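Quick one: structure tokens for this chain, please?
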Amino acid sequence: MEQTLDFEYDCITEEEVSEIRHALESGDLTEAATKILENLEQLDNVKLDIAITGESGSGKSTFVNVLRGIEDDDEEDAAATGVTETTMVATQYPHPKHPNVSLWDLPGIGTPNFSAEKYLQQVNFEIYDFFIIIASERFKSNHAKLAIEIQKMGKSFYFLRSKVDSDLDASKKRRKSTYNEEKILNQIRENCIQSLKAECIDSPNVFLISSFDLTLFDFQAFEEKLERELPSHKKHAFLLALPNMSLEILKKKKELMMSEIWKVAFTSCCAAAVPVPGLSVICDTAILIKTLTSYRDNFGLDEQSLQKLAEKVDKPVEDLQAVIKSPLAKEISYDIIYKVLTKAVGGGVMLAEYILSTIPVFGSLTAGAISYTSTSWLLKSFLEELSQDAKNVLIKALETSV
């Protein structure tokens, strides 16, 4: 039976599939590997530009910082925050680990003579993939005008109601005996929806958030909506750039990276591959080291990320490091890869026939089966280890079974 590519796997186009299949059918494994490597490199460099706008004091800059995993008091990297408008021009803030992803802090929209059309021209609306419109109280006419103009220009927008945690705290103090969090959240959400409907916005979706803690309220629903609506390559960039704030986010990152392993293993075995001394394996160890390093960094297990997390939760960084078991969190080297490949080769021989009959594209291949299965096993094993370490670190940081 002819093997086909499973499109749940990937961010790979029909045209790329056709080129890879043609190269394989002609027996040119190097060409096929080159095409797949190009796809991987394109994914690493996909640009995602997110515009954050709203009235001054609504929490725009704080939201920019928290999405980038930056504290407001980080003088070097943080977007300036304050109760008055601190953003006078559109300011780009690249993600510290994924510089292809940028959040743009746009000037406030609260002026009396606000013109949505002129505003969008001034901030170069065409460069953004989508807009996030933030309000810390009710949504007003300027928010609606901006949304309508964004829609006219063929872009997507999302309404976020910020500082909800402050509203809840205030309500709890005023109504100690009758306080009902769910009821208050529904009231806030409904008030926002009705305000936007009054300004001629049909069926508005409003997401309630805390700019300081994205695990609260509607941020997960907002993130899931973006997942559904973004093109696959943009979704890939967005997910990897999200802060590791919940077990659900860690799970999604793991699944995303797992889905790319067949590409990395294939290119490692076919593109500029050399024999590994003492083993019946050919692979490009530089590709493996780069991939494993990205796994560690995406899970926030590098030294800098652990230090920042420790400071955020006010714990010694040693407490977080103590729950990490994988050697990759400390060092990613040729020696470690060699040791694991030695273990993997035995299993690779037994798995080769099975893998070749089940993995997309490889059904017609016979050469390099051991190399492919061994490197694939290595990547999957370390991804599982790092994923578990990331869970352990998050649970330790929060001291809960989140």
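Strands lie at 48-54, 91-94, 101-105, 130-135, 156-161, 206-208, 274-275, 282-283.
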